[in-house]
Amino acid sequence: MSLIVQKYGGSSVADAESIKRVAKRIVQTRKAGNEVVVVVSAMGDTTDELLDLAGQVTPLPEPRELDMLLTAGERISMALLAMTIKGMGVDARSFTGSQAGMITDARHGAARIVDVTPVRLREALDAGAIAIVAGFQGFSRETMDITTLGRGGSDTTAVALAAALGAEVCEIYTDVDGVFTADPRVVTKATKIERITSEEMLELAAAGSKVLYIRAVEYARRHGVTIHVRSSFSNSPGTYVYNPKDGETVEEPIIAGVAADLNEAKITIVDVPDIPGKAAEIFTLVATTGANIDMIVQNVSAAATGRTDISFTLPKAEGLRVMQALETQKDRIGFSTLQFDDQIGKLALVGAGMRTNAGVSAKLFTALYEAGINIEMISTSEIRISVVTRADTINDAVRVVHTAFGLDGEQDAVVYAGTGR
Ligand code: ADP
Ligand code: ASP
Ligand code: MG
């Protein structure tokens, strides 16, 4: 008997009808002779709505209480799904993250998994039941409190349980048919990818393709879990995210896909003295804030002044904290002003075949130039090129780059549900 983990995202369980539809698919999988563990997200946009609600009662909600609030969303969907399946005459039991043995550290809102002990899930499976688990939540042994893994974290719950239970596959059900060469909500001619290496998927997820959460991909890569991303609204096969075995040669497309991220901001530190040690001083200070820095650019210094500008990007949500930290050290570092720009967009082109192909950057820059889109920052890795543009040009940028690299498909991609929020 195979064990299959299935994760259903918010848009797949948005209302009573959807829950009934998903329940049928789960029961079919069980009746086909598999053991089934299901991970559910909160219904529709519940998590965003709860966050809005918290924001209406206080500007800075206490992280512990925010986790208590948000985990309620997943608890609603798990119980409704379990009772639907029971109502169909099949045994099912729901479990919170804590009951399912998702042990994390104590960082509210961004907890890391430290141990997975799915004893109660194993018992339920042995008794012939379907186990249904609330996604994105855990429990800290240190503080005895409920935690969350961060937005999109149900994907990680599913992969972690698949690893701990030795599942054959971890199926991630969503509102599109798989991983596409670009977000189908932005590029209608995006093409579904049949198989993608975890290395490329990691880059796409890191660059903003929220179809899979980056930490889930990392976890799967480390523990050798195969992920199958597919639609809960159709029976089409989706995308397999796999880890090539040692020595396995993979036919790598030059470009796997294009991703965009509108959640970053840019900080520019103006007139930094161009002497050794200044960058070290600045980024040591930034590191103490815990912010996740991405691109860094230092201009050539003006010969007359011996001063330079340093810019870097970081998640918008961390902007205020970092600006405040830099402001307190203004005199010591010796810069003149700080600029904060949250109207940027970041585009990333990803592909393992880039390693062995010259001319990819030239083609990317030409496509943007021909569309009249200005590039503000550039960074590259072995299998990725990223550029920063104005936020309001990012969707056009994704479309022209997608076309320039010949990724446009014959048919329009289908988006079955969801609000894209
Ligand atoms: P779920 O609620 O199932 O977790 P998400 O909204 O988190 O779903 O992720 C699915 C969405 O990810 C799709 O509706 C699509 O708009 C977006 N997306 C972004 N990039 C891609 C991509 N490369 N391939 C497929 N979907 C993508
Ligand atoms: N409901 C949570 C969120 O929207 C977790 C998830 O769906 O993965 O972020
Ligand atoms: Mg998601």
From TrEMBL:
Keywords: Amino-acid biosynthesis, ATP-binding, Kinase, Lysine biosynthesis, Nucleotide-binding, Transferase. InterPro entries: AceGlu_kinase-like_sf, ACT-like_dom_sf, ACT_Aspartokinase, ACT_dom, AKii-LysC-BS, Asp/Glu/Uridylate_kinase, Asp_kin_monofn, Asp_kinase. The keyword Cytoplasm does not apply. Residues 267-343, 349-421 form the ACT domain. It is an enzyme of class 2 (transferase). It holds the Pfam family AA_kinase. PROSITE patterns: ACT, ASPARTOKINASE. GO terms for molecular function: aspartate kinase activity. Pathway: Amino-acid biosynthesis; L-lysine biosynthesis via DAP pathway; (S)-tetrahydrodipicolinate from L-aspartate: step 1/4; Amino-acid biosynthesis; L-methionine biosynthesis via de novo pathway; L-homoserine from L-aspartate: step 1/3; Amino-acid biosynthesis; L-threonine biosynthesis; L-threonine from L-aspartate: step 1/5. Its EC number is 2.7.2.4. It comes from the Bacteria. It catalyses: L-aspartate + ATP = 4-phospho-L-aspartate + ADP. The keyword Transferase applies. Belongs to the aspartokinase family. This is Aspartokinase. It comes from Lysobacter korlensis.
